[in-house]
C-alpha cells in the first residue's frame, strides 16, 4: 500500500533573501518620502500619531514639571523671606531717623514761636515735562513744556524728587529754557550739610560741578552732601544739590580743587517741578555815603581844637 500525501514541511521556513528585503524597504521609504514631500500624503498619519502620543508625552513630563515647580516655589519663598528681612531691617534702621526728624521739626517750630520768627511759607510748584535738550552742544540746557501762559517766570528754581536740577533761564509763551546745574554759566550758593560751611558751587560740564573758592585746608571731605544755603533768594534753603566726589589739595595753590556730582537727575531727563517765587527778602540797608562822614568828623575836630 502506497502512502499518498504531501511532502513534510521543511525544518526552517525561509523567506526572501535579506538583500531583497533591504532593497524593498529602502525603495518603500524613498517612495514615501517623495510622496510626503511633494503631495503631503502622510500628513494625516503624522497628526494621528501626534494625537495618540500627546497624552503619553504629558504623562512623561509630569514628574519633571512637578520637580521644576517645586524648585521654583522654594526659590521664590526663600527670596521673599530674604527681601522681607531686608525691608524689616531697613525699616528699623530708618525709624530712628524719622522719629528724630519729626522731633526736630516740632522743636524748630517751638523755637520760632518763642523767638517770634515768622515761619517760612511753602512755595507752590508746577509739574513740567522736559521735552528735549538745547541745540547748543557746549551748554547744558533743556526745554520744558511750561511757559508764560502757565505762570512760569525767569529765575524760578527747578527740582525733581531728589534735589535741584537747575533754574529757569528764558521764558517763552508755551515753553521755557532751564539752565542745568552742570552748565558752566551756572552757579549756586551751597553749604555743607555736615558742618554748615558755605561756598559757591559752579557747573563744570560733562555732568559734574566744582566747589570754588574754598581754602586748601577747608573742613570738607569726600562724601559730604551739599545743600542750598538760600542766600541768593532764589532757592529754598536745605534742598539737596550735590555730593563731594573728589578733593585735590595742593599746597602750591591757595584754593582746593573740589569736584562734585549732582544728586538729582540732572542728566536724566523726564519730569521736573518748577517752584514758585520765594517770599521777597527784606532789602539790604543802604550804605552811608563816604562824603557824609568827613564834614561831621571835621566839625568834631574843630570843637575839640577850640
Automatic annotation (TrEMBL):
One protein family per Pfam: MreC
PANTHER family: CELL SHAPE-DETERMINING PROTEIN MREC (PTHR34138)
Name the UniProt record assigns to this protein: Cell shape-determining protein MreC
Domain Rod shape-determining protein MreC beta-barrel core per the UniProt entry, residue ranges: 131-271
Keywords for this protein: Cell shape, Membrane, Transmembrane, Transmembrane helix
Family indicated by similarity: Belongs to the MreC family.
Membrane-spanning intervals of the chain: 20-39
Any GO BP annotation: regulation of cell shape
InterPro entries for the chain: Cell/Rod_1, Cell/Rod_MreC_2, MreC, MreC_beta-barrel_core
Annotated Basic residues bias: 297-306
Renumbered residue ranges of the record's region Disordered: 282-306
GO cellular component, one term: plasma membrane
The protein's role, per its UniProt record: Involved in formation and maintenance of cell shape.
Signal peptide location: none
